[in-house]
Design brief:
253 residues, mainly alpha, 78% helix
Length: 253
């Protein structure tokens, strides 16, 4: 086993736990990728990350669907739209830098964080209903936008999806987390249609890290189910604030 894998495997396990519980595992794994694999291009690092993330998300979905009832009539159109958005985003990444989009993301993330902080009951209980045509339209439009962000920039997609399902469709944190996993799996999987044909995935790295992410997701889902909405809300606030600080730092420097 290479020295890089010895460093990355435990980090992928921790990222898998956080991804399964609330998303934003990229905050942990991506900086480690760049520091551990300086000779890899950003596209190659994204290839390793997306391939391993798909494996972890798939295990999370399997666990959540065995324990929770999910609104598939809403999730599937949202996921399909997000897949198209993610593929569009990663193709655009080939032609132009993503830095221009960073200030927009910072503003949206700050609003999202403040909204959650000042509304203690946000996501506390599930008041969802059978999705209407308006709900489906909102899901498709927001799914495309978040999917585009995932393909174009990446880290924080899980947080945006979690907020989407709570704010617009009135799920609690637990069910919103499960729904976000399905959509996030779709966005990650769609990028593979671009990454694989272009030979941007190093499978000798991606597969061991994917196995580690699977093990992490087994732990993360159990932690989420036992901790409930209050625990997920607290972790969401911490990680969203961390992401906001990271983006601000990168923008200012």
């Amino acid at each position: 086993m290479s020295s890089e894998l010895l460093v990355l495997i435990p980090v992928a396990f921790i990222a898998g736990i956080i991804n399964a519980a609330v998303g934003v595992g990229g905050l942990i794994i991506m900086p480690t990728f760049y520091s551990t694999l300086p000779h890899f291009t950003p596209a190659e690092i994204m290839g390793i990350d997306k391939c391993s993330s798909v494996m972890g998300h798939l295990m999370s979905i399997k666990q959540f669907t065995a324990r929770l009832r999910l609104p598939w009539t809403l999730i599937l159109p949202t996921a399909i739209s997000a897949v198209i958005g993610a593929y569009s985003g990663i193709r655009l990444l080939d032609f132009m830098p993503s830095d221009w989009m960073r200030p927009i993301v910072i503003v949206v993330l700050a609003i999202m964080l403040a909204y959650t902080w000042f509304k203690p009951q946000f996501g506390h209980s599930d008041t969802s209903r059978e999705p209407t045509r308006g709900d489906l339209a909102k899901g498709i439009l927001s799914g495309f936008a978040i999917g585009f962000y995932d393909g174009f920039i990446g880290p924080g997609t899980g947080s945006f999806l979690l907020f989407l399902f709570i704010r617009f469709f009135h799920f609690d944190f637990l069910r919103a987390t499960a729904c976000a996993k399905v959509v996030n799996f779709g966005t990650n999987f769609s990028t593979l249609f671009f990454l694989i044909p272009n030979g941007l995935i190093h499978y000798e790295m991606a597969i061991p890290l994917g196995v580690s992410a699977i093990c992490g997701s087994l732990v993360g889902v159990r932690v989420a189910l036992r901790g409930g909405n209050l625990w997920i809300r607290r972790l969401f606030l911490i990680l969203a604030a961390t992401l906001l600080i990271k983006l601000l730092w990168e923008t200012l420097h």
